[in-house]
Amino acid sequence: MTLNPPRYLDRTSPPHLTTLIFVTGLGAMAMNIFLPSLPRIAETFDAPYALVQLAVAGFLATNGVLQIFLGPLSDKFGRRRVLLVGLGIFVLATLGCLLARDIYTFLVFRMMQATVAVGFALSRAVVRDMNTADKAASMMGFVTMGMSLVPMIAPALGGVMDALFGWESTFWLLLVCGTIVFGLAWFDLGETAPPSNNTLLGQFREYPELLNSPRFWGYCLASALSSGAFFAFLGGGPYVASTVYGLDPAAFGLWSAMPGVGYFAGNFVTGLVAARLGVNRMVMAGSTLVLIGMAISLGLSYAGMGAPVVFFGCMGFVGLGNGMVIPSASAGMLSVRPRLAGTASGLGGTIQIGGGAALSVLAGILLQDSPTERPLVWLMFVTAVAGLVAIFAVVLRERQLIRRGGMP
After folding, report:
1. Which of 51, 235, 369, 402 is the most buried (most CB within 10 A)?
2. What residues does each domain of the chain span?
3. Is residue 364 within 8 Å of residue 78, measured between CB atoms?
4. Is the pTM here over 0.85, yes or no?
5. Contact present, 406 and 245 (Cβ < 8 Å)
6. What is the distance between the alpha carbons of residues 113 and 37, in angstroms, rounded to a whole number?
């Protein structure tokens, strides 16, 4: 399929870069803008914090499961149609969260909000439809650089809005933003992949081809494990802020912008140099930075220097590393089988987000009644080590394949 150059608000051309940024940014906003409000939500519904925390872990788990289906559905029916349906459901689910009168109804609609996963999953596939592997990594870097402004701003904004207007105000903001992004996608996001002639069941039968590729697994695990430090932070950060450091929601919102600052910088670096250095070097460098950040955090904590500036400051390394790892590893996994870009994006997203949900829950369990942040930091340190091992495995596998004269 030969694609026309992007023309803004023209549904017959590929989407403009800003549209992809807004589509992915909405998912990031939905994930973390309400984090400072978790204690207030627990009070409103008279529910234990462990149950309310499912608004994070359950959202991530549902997000991960959905991505199993989003990739094949987009390969079968096209990117545009699937993305618009997902965004439409997100808008309705957000309204449901606002109308909920008990914690269980709230959580059901919160899980439905996870259809916003179409933004991240399919924007990667759209970028890969339009570019070669290394160029796709660079463009993904710019897309996620713009999107990374959201995690920098959203928690701080959410904390302030919670203090001034109550936790519901953050969901009203999500409703307004979701409606605007849906309209933008409707008018600007042209189709980049023709619907497949394969049946939907046939699309799902393509999964074994990906699952049998060691390189696909390597890229997926490198992305999932390196970003696992951030997902663990989502699950344990509110506890550390309120219980260990005694921060109020507004202060936590400001401090929790640190990963977003790092993520912005990491994606900027990726956009500049990924096409020149290649995806493997970018993933390796990013994974190393995550590991360094967690090692510093642990060392200072055991030295008796644990403080908000140390804990959240070191989370900036996590964001910086993820800004280099995620776009590059995503480009790598989608390039293993380019004709299955949508399916690969969905499956890779499932592995990443599903692993993140598990780490988010595990963070809450490890921190239960803990007087320090160390259980959370150790969890993030271990996931960073595992992510670095995964990308080394990819490099070794590619060297083997090159010696054999192929790259399956």
Report:
1. 235
2. 17-404
3. no
4. no
5. no
6. 17
